[in-house]
Design brief:
Two copies of one chain form a homodimer. The first copy, chain A, is about 30% helix and about 20% strand. In chain A, helix 6 crosses helix 10 (about 395-410). Chain A has helices spanning about 10-25, 35-40, 65-75, 130-140, 155-160, 255-265, 280, 300-310, 325-340, 395-410, 440-460, 475-480, 480-500, and strands spanning about 30, 55-60, 80-85, 100-105, 110-115, 120-125, 145, 175-185, 190, 225-230, 235, 240-245, 275, 315-325, 350-355, 385-390, 390-395, 420-425, 425-435, 465. With about 525 residues, chain A is α+β, with helices and mostly antiparallel strands. Chain A starts with 10 loop residues before the first helix and ends in a 26-residue tail after the last helix. In chain A, strand 8 (about 175-185) and strand 9 form a beta hairpin. In chain A, strands 13, 16, 17, 18, 19 and 20 form a six-stranded antiparallel beta sheet that branches. The longest helix of chain A has 20 residues, at about 440-460. At the A-B interface, strand 9, helix 9, strand 17, strand 20 and helix 13 of A face strand 9, helix 9, strand 17, strand 20 and helix 13 of B.
């Protein structure tokens, strides 16, 4: 990829900035060839990969190096785009929102600073991946389980900061961040919570600060570069039971939600419950051409044949319980009784006890995997995917409404419908996976039109997304219109105060610093 | 109390400001007589009540009125000190940190805007008290339980914002705030989280925003006046079981913590576990003179006599379980087995089932009470209390260390020792109640010296407080010294950006706006 300079930065100033960065991290860790830029572009980009082009990447290894780079970026006015490991697949991977930003790759900051088996937490640098932490914990035989997202090759801290979701009881990973260290946009170093007292041993244990609590202000945020954070982990249970139901019909989602949500809210179900549609079961078995060899969305009649052929329900509900066997058993009986009111087929049951082997692909037991990435192969060719991810209240009324709306829009665009709902308590995250062949421009164009329509129609109905791809960060921020976009004004005021030159991740989640507000595009 | 003007405000400007406030809320709701000032002073003040004097109070009833008052306060440069109901007992009640601030009393904003029985949350204005919400829920027969603090006459939202603690599974109330509306220091109105989209029904359900999440930045904070907030409530359980143990010796706290904390972290115990020392049982029975009629702290030999006489342990552990009877029973058996390793006496057991009456004083079943306030009578005379409240990791090592340190300092000051630990998961909140007779200057002076010593010795050992009385907000902020007080710098930078005239709660938790930084006193 050819060099695109940051706005209003001359080639000479840009070269001087890179030279200065080299002085901090060494020549090897400033990467600015065409191949380097390719490596930091969006591998799944819905469109040409140079739509969100990085100008270079710099990879510091220490907090002091991050501070030095940030200070130089202020001096040379070169915007930085920090990524933990750059694996934000479907949402832009490592690519920056503002063309010409220098990606700050934190992948070399990959130290596991602490794992406390008793108090059940870890202190991690942002470059620590789920696989790294998992291997460490297994190697050291530490009785803790991870909460891993669908695709586990990203950063533990990065995932939590981006509001990622796992499938154990610790599912809303951002809720289990506790105590953050961040380099501020002008290079100062702050620790949140009790970490603001040097060596306070409760830093990563107590979730509030004295005065305002800032941890989550650094999530989905361009207010600081998180250089370490505490993450609560789940004590390894003594036993676990999985119940698994095939739910026959699409419309059954109504009773499924109204049965499971109250049990989740009441704490009978601890797990973050993932409910994928039938596509979830087909994706690992082959590409779409194995199931439907014509263009356009798989028609409903063929879907029904496939369900019969593969013995699948329209939805798949798996519930996992964790803990002492007696408690697990008591909880499972309550849930089975509630499900039985609607579905006479009993669930498949699968017990696990301490010492038993753990399935290598079992997300719900905290094992990282990249198996779900196979969905990128669904359409054939150089596949990519984007996720359309609105949040709705956990009731049948809202879930069915959301399902019907998305389904119709996606059908209208003749795209395969692959929905899932994750029940996190009082809300459900609806993820609609949209797959495309990056080399088919008409497919990509269609997906983009579809994505626009999904955002605007969903907003019209009153619902919002909880994360989105680079290309739609502004349109989604635009949907937050209360009091003439008061939240955006608030974000911008804080941003400008902390980052007067606007060098840190301009445009992240639609928050633009003054210095680049002209680049934000048209606003409502 | 005589009028103390805000810094650098002339009598004429002050009168003009009050007149302008009257234009917004009416004459009746601007209160500026000596008696009014008395009413908004600290009724438990450890020292003269005019040490933290309000100049007046103003009581808006609507969001628009709050906005108008805030704008006028900017115009007239009169600092405001917002309180929800002003019942922050032991921490300053309604009194302001900066002398001459106008208390903004939000007690008239007391609407219960929404209670959703299924999704288990309420939307409340700040003036709604625990008793108000409790009565509403009982009257309407809504199957939800509250999480109430020791003394329940304060505001639900105010308590959560001040990091208050309850004694059900929802104990860390700030963790259950979801979706806030706040008037910013210059009068703009912002909604956090999904509420930034108008009428989004998931506002009070999903705990993150798109972009940075701000909810807890408005806790213990002077960045906005919270005018409404969502609060998650606990679904009423079908049954509940209380286990109660008298724990014989002081040093037994070590095994108690090491037994209970892992079960709490693992989720076998859901409740926020409150472990008071023996004083908790004596306080409702009489004043100290009924148990010890000499001055100075009750000596250890007399303590041992009292424990024998009243059949008390040094500590009292009550654990409550909530939910389906089968699940409750299974969990209780696990906990009883763990406790039996250390204490052969079985616990007292007390079952409750749906429909049974609920004890009017049972905090652990979500009933608000002010019974624990009786401790103010302990010393006789016009009693007051302050709480010294450090947070420590939930292990015997840290808890015993903290206990011994506080105990020695308190004994050295010849004051009765009334400690409790609340186990909230990975941490324990240690509250040391310090009672005094407000009319005995030498008692008050001793308590102040004691409080200074507690803060500095505890900080030296590496631990911090999670809240404190007005008079010690600066010394406690001073203990957060990491990177030359980086957190304070950060707080001040944000504060100055949002509140250029510094009118909102200057000095709150040691965060001072530029306009009043000279009033902050000497800083380390």
């Amino acid at each position: 990829m050819k060099l695109v300079l940051p706005p209003r930065v001359s080639p000479a100033r840009f070269s001087a900035a890179l030279k200065a960065f080299e002085g901090v991290v060494g020549k090897d860790w400033v990467m600015a060839t065409d191949a380097d830029r390719d490596a930091y572009s969006d591998v799944y980009a819905p469109g040409p990969k140079d739509e969100w082009p990085p100008s270079a990447a710099v990879a510091p290894q220490t907090v002091e190096e991050v501070q030095a780079i940030v200070r130089l970026a202020n001096e040379y006015r070169t915007p930085l785009w920090p990524v933990s490991r750059g694996k934000n697949l479907g949402y832009g991977t490592a690519a920056p929102r503002l063309p010409g930003s220098v990606v700050m790759d934190l992948g070399r900051m990959n130290r596991i600073l602490e794992v406390d088996p008793k108090l059940a937490y870890a202190v991690l640098e942002p470059g620590v991946g789920f696989f790294d932490l998992y291997e460490h914990i297994r190697r050291e035989n530490i009785p803790l389980w991870l909460s891993v997202p669908g695709n586990g090759w990203g950063s533990v801290i990065g995932n939590a900061l981006e509001h990622g979701i796992g499938y154990t009881p610790y599912g809303l990973n951002g809720r289990h961040l506790c105590g953050i260290e961040a380099v501020l946009p002008q290079g100062d170093l702050v620790r949140t919570g009790l970490g603001a007292m040097k060596d306070n041993p409760a830093w990563h244990l107590f979730p509030f600060g004295y005065g305002p609590t800032w941890d989550l202000a650094f999530s989905q945020s361009n207010l600081g570069v998180v250089t370490k954070a505490g993450m609560w982990l789940m004590p390894a249970p003594r036993s676990s039971l999985e119940l698994s139901w095939q739910i026959p019909r699409e419309e059954d989602i109504a009773w499924v939600i109204d049965t499971i949500a109250p049990l989740k809210i009441a704490g009978v179900i601890d797990q973050n419950v993932f409910i994928p549609s039938w596509m979830g079961a087909l994706v690992p078995l082959g590409n779409r051409q194995d199931f439907w060899d014509k263009p356009g969305a798989i028609p409903e009649s063929r879907v029904q044949e496939l369900l019969k052929q593969y013995n699948l329900g329209y939805w798949h509900v798996t519930l996992r319980f964790y803990g002492e066997e007696s408690v697990v058993r008591a909880k499972a009986e309550v849930v089975k009784g509630a499900m039985r009111q609607h579905l006479s087929t009993p669930p498949q049951e699968s017990w696990w006890h301490e010492g038993d082997p753990i399935d290598n692909y079992d997300l719900t037991m905290g094992v990282p995997t990249v198996m779900p990435l196979q969905m990128s192969d669904w359409v054939g060719g150089r596949g990519g995917h984007m996720g359309f991810s609105p949040v709705v209240p956990a009731t049948s009324e809202h879930v069915v409404g959301q399902l019907k709306r998305s389904r119709k829009i996606i059908a209208d665009h003749d795209v395969d419908f692959y929905a899932s709902f994750t029940l996190g308590g009082r809300f459900a995250n609806n993820v609609n996976m949209l797959m495309y062949d990056r080399d088919k421009p008409e497919q990509v164009a269609n997906i983009r039109k579809l994505f626009d329509a999904l955002i605007s129609e969903t907003a019209k109905a009153g619902y919002a997304e909880y994360r989105t791809h680079l290309g739609w960060m502004d349109p989604v921020m635009d949907t937050f219109g209360f009091n003439d976009h008061a939240l955006r004004r608030f974000n911008e005021k804080v941003k400008d105060a902390l980052d007067p030159h606007g060098i840190l991740a301009p445009g992240k989640q639609g928050v633009w610093p003054k210095a680049y507000r002209a680049e934000a595009g048209v606003r409502s």
